[in-house]
Backbone:
């Protein structure tokens, strides 16, 4: 198995990071971010992009328009080294305090350059910015709250055709054992007969049991690969996709071969504080290696935000930032 590190497309200098961080603190002032509505929070985050160096903004916009270096974008140095990070919360929906408030607004501001930040009702408490932290009793689950197991290959919310376009992960506290792993659909280079099978709608993409969904939502029929050969899209979840027909051994074999290929071509990055990793959720699958959670306030802590890159889709949902699963 090979592992390649994603190219660092842009980084803030320590002086720039200090200036941006201080300006975000002034923009927040004495506001209680927990009391703001999702729209008010995004409106406040619009103050962030003008604070960023023009070259950084240009790299982000190039990623949205053309993805010239690939479908994964790594930005580094977004937090000054001296920043004191609060204790890692015990819950994904725990209120934010101290420097975590600035980190949340920074993440929303950057993701706003790629589209409309949103979340689904019932998903991590319906919060626009979620804490990806290990949770007791969930160490061995296939969720972002796990730690002791490999969080296997998946896209976010693949059971929805209109799943989010972009995911942003901002690291507040890292763990050297927890590598974020990514594989781009365009790097698969599958044998023609295998690719042809995966391009047929012979698969059932189901929601994860952890998703808080309305009764009757059971996923969808889907092809694993769609789009052009040069820029293919992918929908996949190692644990929640299967052939529509249990007797379809060719489709089952194709899924196994795809999983093997993802292991072979993936990119890997161990997140450090101030790293922001953004990926195209239509063209990239991701996973995370196991790590040992201590539950003492020093565990790995990422913040996550999803963005819808299509104004048409966002308006179809009704314009709300917390979207009902049934829409």
Residues:
């Amino acid at each position: 198995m090979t592992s390649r590190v994603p190219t660092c497309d842009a980084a803030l200098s320590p002086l720039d990071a200090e200036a941006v961080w201080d300006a975000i603190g002034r923009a927040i002032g004495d506001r209680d971010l927990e009391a703001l509505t999702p729209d008010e929070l995004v409106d406040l985050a619009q103050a962030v992009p003008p604070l960023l160096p023009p070259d950084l903004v240009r790299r982000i916009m190039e990623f949205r328009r053309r993805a010239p270096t690939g479908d994964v974008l790594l930005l580094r140095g977004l937090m000054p080294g001296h920043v004191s990070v609060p204790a890692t919360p015990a819950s994904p929906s725990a209120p934010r305090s101290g420097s975590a408030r600035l980190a949340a607004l920074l993440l929303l501001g950057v993701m706003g350059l790629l589209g409309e930040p949103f979340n689904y009702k019932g998903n991590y408490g319906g919060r626009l910015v979620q804490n990806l932290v290990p949770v007791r009793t969930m160490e061995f689950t296939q969720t972002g709250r796990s730690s002791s197991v490999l969080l296997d290959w998946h896209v976010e919310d693949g059971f929805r055709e209109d799943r989010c376009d972009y995911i942003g992960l901002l690291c507040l506290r890292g763990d050297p054992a927890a590598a974020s792993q990514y594989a781009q659909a365009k790097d698969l280079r599958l044998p023609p007969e295998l690719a042809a099978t995966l391009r047929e709608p012979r698969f059932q993409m189901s929601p994860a049991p952890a998703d808080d969904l309305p009764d009757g939502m059971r996923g969808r029929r889907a092809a694993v690969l769609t789009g052009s050969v040069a820029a293919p899209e992918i929908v996949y979840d190692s644990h929640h996709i299967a052939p529509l027909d249990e007797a379809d051994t060719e489709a089952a074999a194709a899924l196994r071969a795809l999983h093997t290929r993802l292991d072979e071509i993936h990119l890997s990055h161990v997140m450090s504080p101030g790293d922001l990793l953004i990926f195209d959720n239509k063209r990239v699958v991701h996973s995370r290696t196991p790590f040992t959670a201590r539950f003492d306030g020093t565990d790995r802590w990422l913040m996550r935000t999803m963005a819808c890159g299509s104004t048409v889709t966002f308006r179809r949902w009704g314009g709300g930032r917390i979207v009902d699963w049934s829409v």
Remarks:
- The helical segments are 14-28, 38-45, 54-65, 99-111, 192-198, 249-265, 311-316.
- The CA atoms of residues 62 and 302 lie 25 Å apart.
- The mean pLDDT is 93.
